[in-house]
Queue: 4 jobs
Job 1
Amino acid sequence: MPRRERPAETTRSEHWLRFVVNERTQQLNSVVAEVFGWSRHDDVRWLSPIKDDDFAEYYDQEFLDRLGLSKLRVPLREFWPRGGPRWDRLAKTESGKVILIEAKAYIEEMVDFRSKASPASLEQIKRSLEKAKSACRVAVDAPWDAPFYTVCKPVGASLLPR
């Protein structure tokens, strides 16, 4: 069975994220292109969660398969522990850019950042984050595991109905 979830109930933020992805797609894509400085002609295709797929959210190898990234130099199982990563939104552009979104709706989600991973999994995560920082040429001390750290600015509030 595919590793995906269909949340039984949605939070208010999940509802609006689904709405924007499924009902305001072109507007969202324009905002994404503007924020990242991408060409507006490089269309974004949202892959999860979408209405036609029962709003499923994919994780583990299935999120990579969904993005068409099944064959990586380092297999996901060697890079990250089983049971993650879990992304709230998945998208890919026509030119192959990948968008992974993890949304936080409540301050508690952002402040209580303690992992439920086992000690061995935590070590694997730390090693993988260090490798990713090196590959992205960011400072070794960049706080990727600290609360309120963001890689890019949030978008989308202007896309919701008034």
Job 2
Amino acid sequence: MTAYAAEIWRLRYFWMALVRVDLRRSYRHSVLGLGWSLLLPLSMTVVLCTVFANLFNVEVRTFAPYLLAGLTVWNFITAAMTQGCQSLFQGEPYIRQHPAPLAIYSLRTTLGAGIHLLAGLVVVLGLVWLLNGFANLRTLIMLPPTLILLFVLAWSLAVCMGIFNVMFQDVQHIVQVLLQVIFYLTPIMYPAHVLRERGLSWVADWNPIGAFLELIRAPIVEAQFPSLTACAIASATTLVSTAAAFLLMAKFERRIIFYL
């Protein structure tokens, strides 16, 4: 594992160049550039705030950053998984020319999605400071470890999706359906207490994505430290997904070229 990570780091200029190429290709001749990635969650936040603020009887000044933070994290996870499905096909020309670690190509897509995540969180922070002041400065110390944990989770999921999709190409369609279902089971566009009040507390409390949402929302939006339960669930989820990614790489990395 250490040697594998060292090899990925040795090739850092290669995968960083791939990320730059992807970003330039995405926003070539674009006026807003990276701003286009923020337009969807911002517009969704405006529309959903208009609809759900009164429905859930919450203030817009707290619900808007809550909703935008949730959409930003969700978009990052979904982008890592859906683009991860195509990461090995996208990197096939390089895979056939040079025996680099295959996790590089999943890292490529995850880093691209991570840049959009950071841009979105900057907007969330600005919105919170504009509407609610700077009460969250003390709790922002939780953000760096949370972002590292979230990035490792997304990278490992992208690795798994990439291998599964090469072996069975219906995986990309299955993932899209599952993500749609998980979206409505996760407190993204509604407060978590709505589930608890309706006897569905297990959905809110044991949802791994919900745990990551709490790790992001609690320090930024609520100016509080996240619960130990959320930290434990998020850490365990990341550990399991990372172990699965390493096991899949160990089993299929040398054979994956025959399936491309």
Job 3
Amino acid sequence: MPSDRPNDPREVLTRAAPAPDRVLTYGPHADHVADLRLPAGQVSDGQRPDGQGTAPLVIVIHGGFWRAAFDRSHAGPQSQALADAGYAVATIEFRRLGGGGGVPATFDDVAAAVDRVPALAAATGRVDAGRVVLVGHSAGGHLALWAALRHRLPEPSPWRRDRDPALAGVVALAGVVDLGSARAAGLGEGAVDELVGGTRGPADLADLDPALLPASDLPVVLVHGTDDDRVPVAIARGYAQRHPGVALWELDGVEHFGPIDPLSSAWPHVLRAVEVAFGGATTIDSRADR
């Protein structure tokens, strides 16, 4: 691990990051915004989609167990580092528990953001809305994978839509990718029950829980630390076992916040996972530390 990383891994949650280049508005609510960061220089070889300098778009969905106490500001260092790597980055906000979120508002907002933000970002002239990867951390990993699977939702679901051809793949960092298992384990002090209102049983999570949906036809990479005590790696292992086409990269000795900290040993693996999600690799190991 780099020597300049603070001893407390939670420090990344309050670390200052440069202000975004623009704040996009994708809907009428105060939380219907996204921080857009553009690459400072020329898009590097292998990431340029059209040869004219537009950058592929990464939509970042932050974590915090879906609660209003955590907002997109803590994803600033992660988002800036992705922009420094040559991507356009839109870090979305959405209604959260304690601020009008839960079912259906949180899901309404994430669906709307994924649908609308690429075109808003492309209006800058520097973003390719035809190549998009979703990256989510913790609860954001759940929402990113869910958003990528909306074409797999059961027919009555209000969030179902055809797969967006612009969506290239999804990366879940320490993701809550199995709501049923997370609920049974009481993760986040009962956060799943709060999210769904406590009224839905296991059979009623079919349009909310990625683990209950058919496998994605897009590249999916789960990046998870073996020392994660907030979302145990067993959550990711269970999802990967159920969906064998998913890539699970276990990072030995990495805790919950390592995958969103550009100063951590996990960060090079995160950048590689994003590259894979964009189709930049064809062979991936099940353990990134090997």
Job 4
Amino acid sequence: MKHVDVYWSHQSPYCYFSLDRILCRQESNDIPVTLRLVLPGVLRNVGKFGDASKMEERYFDLDTKRTAEYLRMPVRVPRPWPVECEPDTLYRARADQPRVYRLYHLNQAAIELGKGLDFLHTVSPSIWNGTTTNWHEERAMRTAIEQAGLDYDALSKSAEKGVESFMRTYAENDKTLQASGHWGVPVFVFNGKPFYGQDRFDQLIWRLGR
């Protein structure tokens, strides 16, 4: 059976941009998908990131908005970002990261219930589409998670209990991602070959059809 591993980071707008197409294919049973969370690059590959130049920041902003317009998807800089960075920096994460880790642990707990994509379907847009400020606060997270058909309180308990196991899972996912031949997100791996970026999704579908 054809199968695709999807490597995902909650810090990446390009993962969000791929979400609708992943969900569409999953719902039509075209592609059995395994969602594999990897921590944001600034946390898992610290040595590869430094201070971004103003040019890089400007291009990132331009490309994010342009890609959203092309895909007809709403987007806004998250308020707040999942990762807490040092002031006036794009790629220097603070040591303490309770917000992003809680988000990941909740998602991983949903994955272990077989509901990882359901979680993404409601939570990811709340981060990225501009409708929710302070998406990380309990009221907003509860609303998004319950819209996914999940029990917020039960999922929160699982997220708290599973921290050590989940951290090992993220590390293992990073290893298998790099073993496929790439390090970024989103990456779709089919037959051991990586398709990097939301703009490679159509090539993935083409390859699956061959």
